[in-house]
Amino acid sequence: MNFNYILSTGSVRIADSQASILERNQQALFQDNYSNIRYVSLDSGGQIKQDKFHFNDAVITGDNCSLLSVNSQTFLEGEVNITTGENQYYYSVGGSGDYSTDFENSNGRIVFHSSINIENTDVLFYDKRDQSDPFVQNKVNVGGSTWYDVMQYLIADINAQDATANFQEMIEKYNVFLNGQKITDESSTTLDEVTGKVFAIKKNQLTQELIGISGETYGNPFIEHQVDFYINGMEQDHRDFLQVYTGVYTIETGVNNSIGLIQQEVENYSL
Amino acid sequence: MSALGLLYKIQDSLGSNQRLSAFYNFIYGEVQSDVFGSSEFTGVVGNYNIARDDSLHSGYLLGLIGSDENEISNNIAYFFDNDRIDLTSGNFRVPLDGLNANDISVIIDFEFHSDVSNGVLMGCLEKGTESFDSVDFENSKGFNLGVTDRGHLFFQSFGPEGDSIDVINEIELSKRNLIGLSAGKSFVNLSYFDYLNGLTKDVDIPIDENYTSQKGFLTFGGSDNYYRSTDSFDTTFSGALNNLAIFSGYIDSQSLRDFGEGILGEYAYTGQVETQYQRVTGYSESIVYKTGITGYEYVQTGTLSIHTGREYISGSSELGSSENLVEGERYYKYFALNNGTTESFYKEEIGQLHSDSGYIYYPTGEGAYDTLGLNDISESIQMYVGSSEIMQDSIDIPLYGKSHLTGVTSEVSGVISSPLSATYSSFAPASSGVSLTGQASEPFKKNFIYYLGDRS
Fold first, then answer.
1. What angle in degrees, to the nearest 10, is found between the helix axes of B3-14 and B253-264?
2. Cα B456 → chain centroid
């Protein structure tokens, strides 16, 4: 298993290390919102589909400032397009995007691409991130381009707007995903055979990334609750991880976490 | 840390410091004698002067008691390290001096040394037995607040159903922590202040006030009733106290968090700031008149010369070149005429006779020329050149033309309103507040991640 943690480290002073728990690892709200029933999404068959998950619109307030994972897979945000019908307005997601949001009309509703059907049993987590546009490449079959080639194209795209010299610098500043799975390899024969969508999303400032095969990591100070967890590139539920101080005793299972009574007395009364 | 910050927060929230019974920031201590009713000397940390009555609640360093005053004085400084006291060197005891442990609120700023081991952070639990009608009843006073090996807070008390220990699993402690305890009649609220996430986590633990009333001491670092120790002088806690505040009565966790921010932060005060600004007080009006032709004047545009009188000749002669003339040669001799108003000249043609001739001439021969008696001698004669013209007297008459004058007429063009302004001063009120810019964040962070899931 490959463990990948993105830690928010903050700064040396409390004032510069303060963050909001509402902006990290939040579950999307599943709810009907009757104020905007005239704005609907269509599935690939042209039928109205229900997109009922919402961001907290006090947290996610604009485009390209959210990082959404659906059942551990990270989705790419696209541009929302609205087509005016007779009595309703129809959403579609443009470009290579998997989802978008119409803040003017839908109070934080997450609009999914017509090919994506979301059920109320799906698990959606989102973070707020610093606003930035993603960089997208298409990965075709190996005859067209290797994974290494695609990485070079991506670096060139990024470098045109944000000086980035090489792969190492790119993954220091950006999270790279292939079909929603986080990738940290510059070249891979396995990935050479894969086709799909590659995108890079800029990381927030003051973060530290740890990659390893051990589920535990210690020594790097971080702000509790401000960590993203990936296992084999898939985002995990933060509740599956303990974030503690290293001084605590090694966790043991089967040991009673309580202090035993010194003396127990039973009083019997006869009336 | 800032006592002024705490005082500011308390006064801002509660209006006064009346409920602040004690505050310690552990900068220094003193040596006192007869603290425990004996002749021994003890290290004492005085109550900070921001408290309601700083003569009360002086705290004792239980690890610094002895009969040698000099020894105590020499060692007291070692108990204070970077504005905190090390509870592994000795516990810290605070007499309640009229307070009751089941009706107080406490903020404890503590820090683990390295490894976390279970111990009592604040202890005042006493247990005993009372007899009534030959039946022994176990009762208690006070409670213990401590930390487990796992790094969780625990609350230990006693009640009608016996011993009770609640472990607060929801709160993960860091190396340094600010926690609050608010004791009420029927429950104790334990709170953890996360200043990095802006959170307050708190838990309510039910108690029975009949079993938690305690008017004696609060011992930080130990207890008279703990499974590892039955003497509050024994150290159990592996860490240090940075700050400690004790309030009378129950205070909610959010207020305690706010007060804790005052303890951690830096207090700043900005005096009244004067700002000057211009303000329009009215308008002055000025009438604008049209400009145009206001009149005419006559100016000289030239002159006209008019001849008067009759014509007359006017002339003059002037020296010309010199010529050598032989006697008999003829030349014109000029004579000036000056009749007062005009000048002229006339010329007469004369023959040259040498100036040395005496003007007596004798014939020199029979030729015609000879009979004249002229000598063939020459002399340089200055010639004259004359010029003359016909003159006529004239006078110059000035000629005048009409020119218009321009300026402001009496006809109104419009009105210009000009704003009048005056300078006023406004005063921004004095402001004060607490900021966390000076406090190091590292001890408040976590540094260990453990994956709870299956790793196969």
1. 150
2. 60
Interchain pair B450, A240: CB under 8 A? no
Is A249 in Cβ contact with B117 (below 8 Å)?
A: yes
In whole angstroms, give the CA distance from residue A95 to residue A92. 10
- Amino acid in position A226: Q
Query: In terms of DSSP bridges, do strands A181-183 and A135-139 run parallel, antiparallel, or are they unpaired?
Result: unpaired
Q: E strands of B99-151, at which residues?
A: 104-112, 119-123, 126-132, 135-141, 144-147
**For testing contact with chain A, the best of B446, B452, B454 (most A CBs within 10 A):** B446
Alpha carbon distance B190, B173 (integer Å): 13
Chain A environment of B447 (Cβ under 8 Å): 218-222, 245-246
Q: Which of residues 233-272 of B touch A (CB under 8 A)?
A: 264
Q: What ipTM does this complex have?
A: 0.83
| Residue A108, amino acid | G
Does position B283 have pLDDT exceeding 70, yes or no?
yes
| Rounded Cα distance, A34 and A19, in Å | 33
pLDDT in tens, B324-378: 888 888 888 888 777 666 677 778 888 877 777 776 666 777 777 676 777 778 8
8 Å CB contact of B116 and A249: yes
Contact A248 B149 (CB under 8 A): yes
* Phi/psi-derived region of residue A155, left when phi > 0, alpha when psi is between -120 and 50, beta in every other case: alpha
Q: How far is Cα B221 from Cα B397, in angstroms, rounded to an integer?
A: 127
- pLDDT for A269 equals 63
Q: Among A259, A263, A265, A270, which would you mutate to test the B interface (most chain B Cβ atoms within 10 Å of its Cβ)?
A: A259
For residue A141, the model assigns a pLDDT of 73
Interface test with B, best of A8, A17, A22, A220 (most B CBs within 10 A): A17
Q: Do B151 and A5 touch (CB under 8 A)?
A: no
Distance CA A248, CA B238 (A): 12
pLDDT in tens, A192-209: 888 999 999 999 999 999
The pLDDT of residue B17 is above 70: yes
Q: Tell me the C-alpha to C-alpha distance, in Å, between residue A57 and each of A98, A104, A168.
A: 19, 11, 35
What is the rounded average pLDDT of the residues B32-42? 82
CA B98 to chain A, closest CA, distance in angstroms equals 31
CB within 8 Å: A15 and B437 = yes
Q: How many of the other CB atoms lie within 10 Å of CB of B49? A: 9
DSSP B243-287: EEEEEES---HHHHHHHHHHHHSEEEEE--EEEEEEEEEEEEEEE
Query: pLDDT tens digits for B153-174?
Result: 999 999 888 889 999 988 999 9
List the single residue in A10, A243, A249 with the smallest CB-CB distance to B449. Answer: A243
Asked whether B283 and B418 are in contact (CB, 8 A), the reply is yes
CA dihedral sign of residues B127, B93, B441, A251 = negative
Q: In chain A, which residues have their Cβ closer than 8 Å to the Cβ of B138?
A: 265
- Residues of chain B positioned with their CB less than 8 A from the CB of A219: 447
Closest CA to B125 of B89, B87, B98, B165: B165
CA distances from A208 to A170, A200, B121, B316 (A): 14, 17, 34, 119
What CA dihedral angle connects B286, B290, B295 and B300, to 10 degrees? 100
What pLDDT does residue A249 have? 65
Distance CA B115, CA A244 (A): 12
Closest-CA residue of B relative to A14 is B441
Tell me how far CA of residue B105 lies from CA of A50, B203, B412, B414, in angstroms: 51, 14, 82, 77
What is the distance between the alpha carbons of residues B112 and B177, in angstroms, rounded to a whole number? 9
pTM of the entire predicted model = 0.73
A230 near A69, Cβ under 8 Å? no
